[in-house]
Amino acid sequence: MTGSRPATPQHLGDLARLRRVRDRIDREYARPLDVEALARGVHMSAGHLSRRFRLAYGESPYSYLMTRRIERAMALLRRGDLSVTEVCFAVGCSSLGTFSTRFTELVGMPPSLYRRRAGDGAAGLPSCVAKQVARPVRNREAPGPGPRLA
Predict the structure, then answer these.
(1) Fewer CB in a 10 Å sphere around the end CB: N or C, the chain?
(2) pLDDT (tens digit, 9 = 90+) per residue, 92-140?
(3) What does each C-alpha distance from 136 to 19, 70, 108 come to in angstroms?
(4) Which residues contact 14 (CB under 8 A, 6 or more apart)?
(5) 8 Å CB contact between 120 and 109
(6) CA 141, CA 105: separation in Å to the nearest integer?
(7) Between residues 107 and 150, which one has the greater pLDDT?
């Protein structure tokens, strides 16, 4: 999307629609959202939205949505007053298995382990600092498990 050519009105319009989609995901992450509904909301086809969103933000709308959900889940798990299942549904996931798998991919540990450890690592930190320190890693960049001892 970058280059030496000046931006066309169509390109600028697409960028504005993409920002609206991203803002909607940020606001409504806990609601049932799918790419088709997001695309309808900005008068684009689902395929066009997915391609343009990936070009603009480096990931698909679904991946961005799941990252937002996992970020919120991390905050709820750090609080410690909800179970993993309650957190899963509170952030808009309908499958505990999918939630746990995605959480583990982004954070590097299962949500149950994160919940147990969260009190130790973030104790005494302001929530804005804890959120930044504990931000999930996108695109499967989370460190794998350490070496196994036989």
Answers:
(1) C
(2) 999 999 999 999 999 999 999 999 998 665 555 566 655 555 556 554 4
(3) 21, 7, 9
(4) 44, 52
(5) no
(6) 8
(7) 107
